[in-house]
Amino acid sequence: MRVLHLIAFLAVLVTAVCAWTKEDHEIFDLVSALEKAEGKGTTFYSWLDVSSTASTPEISKAYRKKSLQLHPDKNKGVKHAHERFARLGVIAAILRDPAKRERYDFFYKNGVPVWRGTGYYYSRFRPGLGTVLVFLVVITSGLQYLVQKMNYNRDLKRIEWIVGQARQAAWGAKLNPVEGQRKVKVNLGGSARLDEDGNVMPGRMVDMVVEGNGVYILERDGSLLPVDSSTAVAPSIKRTWFLSLVTELVGKVTRRDGTMIEKASSADGEESDDGSGTGSDAPGSGAVTPKEGSGLKNGRAAATTMAGGRRRKAVSKKKARQQPQQEQEQ
């Protein structure tokens, strides 16, 4: 019954929100602007200094009097003088129009609604694409976290039920603890069925061990798997889709950078020097000569080696032959 009442209330609320017109939204804006400028609780009538039952001539007279006070020519240098004067004209026009005044009187007596519909707020604030995306990420992540929490509570109840079944099978209906280890079979659910002989077969039976307050599932290899609250997966913000995606991307980038660094380090270790910082041209040293390098332009690339991203030029053969001659002359 409460659910029906809630649905009916929401239906009435949606109907009321959908019934708000463009003129209603104009009144909402004026009420908010007037209270912000003149103080909270200020109404159209109180600002014009007339009663809510004032006639149209009385409102016109009050408007002329107020307009003389707020005219921008008499309020030079006053901040927001033009906005106040323009707002006064709009408010007076609403109160002098019978249909618009009747609509304002409705909100004047019942109060301006706090929630004015998504269309109203969207038309006023017009959020950008980034704001919409952030809103969707927050909403979807929050819903996913809520689902995780619901599943966690369900798993806790399921674990509590399994533990109770195992203890009842091991200790009896009165649940008097028994010392030592007891091996029992527990039905974890599933409907009973008939075998080929027509005998009733229970649901899914699992071998379990009860020892003290601990309850364990007996694996086929003889190991014991504890059954307690730690078995359930607790909800976590980090496991929501957006944070999981960010964590995965960061992990991939980190592993990729680590692999590149490792390859560069191995290249440094495998490079061989002849002690002078130049590449060795001796036979069997593995150095690539200009004639051996495939795709090398003019043989120049063979005189260059890469070591950890540092490019080092080897000494040319001509310069190498000149060094002994200079030493002999000296």
From TrEMBL:
Going by the entry's taxonomy, the superkingdom of the source organism is recorded as Eukaryota
Low complexity bias: start-end ranges:
299-308
Keyword hit for Transmembrane helix = yes
In terms of Gene3D superfamilies, this protein maps to: DnaJ domain
**PROSITE patterns in UniProt:** DNAJ_2 (PS50076)
Q: Which InterPro entries match?
A: DnaJ_domain, DnaJ_domain_protein, J_dom_sf
- What membrane topology is annotated for this entry? Single-pass membrane protein
**Which keywords are on file for this protein?**
Membrane, Signal, Transmembrane, Transmembrane helix
One GO cellular component this record assigns the protein to is:
endomembrane system
Q: Where is this region: Disordered?
A: 260-330
**UniProt feature, compositional bias: Basic residues:** 309-321
Region forming the signal peptide: 1-19
Question: Which parts pass through the membrane?
Answer: 128-147
List locations, semicolon-separated: Endomembrane system
Cite the J domain residue spans from the record: 43-108
Name by which UniProt lists this protein: DnaJ-domain-containing protein
Q: Which organism is it from?
A: Lentinus tigrinus ALCF2SS1-6
